[in-house]
Write a structure and sequence with these properties.
The complex is a heterodimer. Chain A is of the alpha+beta class. Chain A has helices at 2-17, 38-49; strands at residues 23-31, 58-64, 66-70, 76-79, 93-97, 101-109. Chain A has a domain at 2-65 and 98-108: hypothetical protein PF0899 fold, CATH 3.30.2320.50. Chain A contains 2 helices and 6 strands. In chain A, strands 2-1-6 form a 3-stranded mixed β-sheet, with helices on one face. In chain A, helix 1 (2-17) packs across helix 2 (38-49). Chain B is an alpha/beta fold. In chain B, 32% of the residues lie in helices and 22% in strands. Chain B contains 8 helices and 11 strands. Chain B is globular. The chains are: A alpha+beta, B alpha/beta. The interface between A and B is large, with 37 and 44 residues. Strand 6 (101-109) of chain A pairs antiparallel with strand 4 of chain B.
């Protein structure tokens, strides 16, 4: 359940960067190939945020798609799991996107 | 609750040294990192609902990655090879490690950092071989992180030119995400698990530089397809090397030692 530690890192990072803010909304980007389950982050967020500047904030998660380039034939395509194969049959893929784990932005009370 | 590993409130990370002395850390994390993040507050945009949007664009694991980079620099500066051994519980990490430190410990100067949620048991097994060892107990934490490793290293104090082998908490999921600053990640699987393990846990097998398939002495008693396992590992990690080993009987152990000697020699 590393999503609990991931969520805690999110809350700590924002609390440290904006210590005096009241955060109303926070937007994360979680890549579909990042190994982090967005639903699990949603599940723990309210509990982790309690008593911090993010208490009561709305959590928005953008799940970004993965992209890969086939090292065998050079084709680029969308992938949404790590076991994907290229149409040419190769499993030798270079991941170009989909592993993001980012705090994009927060909306704070002015 | 702890910032990095998510361990529950009241749960403590402890580091136990060679002499069995335990250093309690209320939280191994969260103190004394002078952090290198830009504390600037991003770009603010006011809007008409009395709130403003602040763009952060910050990697969630930035802190761990920064501490891992610090560990990696320390290893490089001291010519120390660091390996991160990961597996599910019961794959035979400690048995492989015991045999390795007994047979190769003096030659390569191997010291060990043992990670477990609780108990000093694995650390004691390594200590019995005479190798320097530090035990990290993560409490409720499901993986080691770069800060815990830095704490362990301060206690272990490995010699320049030596090798540190880290045995991570037995778990095929969470440790894959946390860079410790190691040179290589080694995943250990055993033939008493399913041959489809690499496909079921692709994140772990994807980050490995080496896969060791352990307990091959038990193959005659099991329905385990080695070829299927290797194919699965290469499906998620096409270049990964796979060694077939029995840590108890010694099959393939020379290949494992050869791999360790080769990695160690590259650093010297």
């Amino acid at each position: 359940m590393h999503e609990l530690s991931i969520t805690q890192s999110v809350v700590t990072t924002v609390s440290e960067r904006l210590p005096d803010a009241t955060v109303r909304r926070i937007r994360l980007e979680i890549g579909r190939l990042s190994g982090v389950a967005a639903d699990s982050v949603r599940f723990c967020f309210d509990m982790v945020a309690e008593g911090t500047p993010l208490d009561g904030a709305v959590l928005e998660i953008t799940e970004s798609s993965g992209r890969a380039r086939c090292r065998s034939c050079g084709e680029e395509f969308e992938v949404n799991d790590l076991l994907a194969l290229c149409d040419c049959g190769s499993a030798d893929l270079e991941l170009l996107a989909g592993q993001e784990l980012l705090i994009k932005e927060v909306e704070v009370a002015a | 609750m702890c910032a990095t590993c998510g361990c529950a409130e009241g749960s403590r990370v402890t580091v136990t040294d060679d002499a069995g002395v335990t250093h309690d850390h209320d939280h191994a994390h969260n103190h004394d990192h002078d952090h290198a993040h830009d504390n600037g507050h991003g770009h603010g945009h006011d809007n008409d609902q009395g709130s403003r949007t602040v763009t952060l664009e910050q990697a969630v694991l930035a802190r761990n990655d920064e501490l891992a980079t610090r560990n990696r620099r320390w290893f490089a500066g001291n010519g120390v090879l660091a390996l991160n051994l990961m597996s599910s519980p019961g794959a035979g990490k400690t048995t492989l490690l015991e045999r390795t430190v007994i047979e190769l410990g003096a030659e390569l100067g191997i010291s060990v950092i043992e990670g477990d949620q609780e108990t000093p048991l694995d650390g004691e097994r390594i200590r019995a071989t005479g190798a320097p060892v530090v035990q990290i107990n993560t409490g409720a934490g499901c993986h080691l992180d770069a800060d815990m490793l830095a704490d362990g290293l301060r206690t272990l104090d490995p010699a320049a030119g030596s090798m540190v082998i880290v045995e991570n908490v037995g778990n095929l999921v969470c440790p894959a995400l946390f860079d410790l600053g190691e040179d290589s990640k080694v995943v250990i699987a055993s033939v008493t698990e399913g041959a489809e393990k690499p496909l079921k846990y692709p994140h772990m097998f994807r980050v490995a530089q080496l896969v060791v398939l352990n307990k091959i002495d038990l193959l005659p008693y099991l329905d385990f397809d080695v070829e299927q396992f290797v194919e699965g590992a290469r499906r998620v990690n096409p270049d990964v090397e796979v060694l077939e080993v029995s840590a108890t009987r010694g099959d393939g152990i020379d290949q494992w030692y050869g791999w360790l000697r080769d990695r160690h020699a590259r650093l010297q």
